[in-house]
Amino acid sequence: MELHARAGRAVVVGERDGVVHEVDPDSLALPSGLATALHEWAQVVAAVSGSGAAPGETTAELVSRRGRQLAGRLAQAMGTPVDYADPLRGGLERVEAPPRPVRNEPAPAPPPSVPTEPAEPTPWATGLTVSALTAAVVATAVVGLTLALAETRWWLGLVANLVVVGGLAPSVWLTRELPVWRWVAYGVAAGLGAAWFALALSLLG
Question: In the chain, at which residue ranges do the beta strands (DSSP E only) sit?
């Protein structure tokens, strides 16, 4: 069984009686949300591949890591190893099914002499500062680029905005849940929104 991403859709490829079959994950008995997560990953792959530029090492690693994670969940749901086809770097990687948790058995308590570490608090002050600085940089860059190009041709400013958004969207989507990079992703999204608002005001003025 292999996991592929083709034209923005996840595809499970298997062989039965010597015949290769391609199956949509929606038709499989998968846990709730897994098929949707597989298709979302395939859509990100299509966006990165269709941007016209070679993906950066960070973006390729994030896409591959997410694909391997989903392949592991698929292997666990199907009860069989899954060969993960890396859509950006190529090659097949065997992903074994992670062990199923043992139910109806209480988790062992920590030794009395070992104190349980408290959960790390969310760094709101530092994170929001990073987001604000990132938003300011992105908004200034997008507004400056758009106005400079619009002085020559108005449609050049529009094309520049589409290129910027298309290039940043996959990275923002993939890093939205990472502990550190999520603050940068929030700042990029806020900066783009602020830039568009400022540009709309300039058109009205």
Answer: 2-6, 9-16, 19-23, 82-85, 92-95
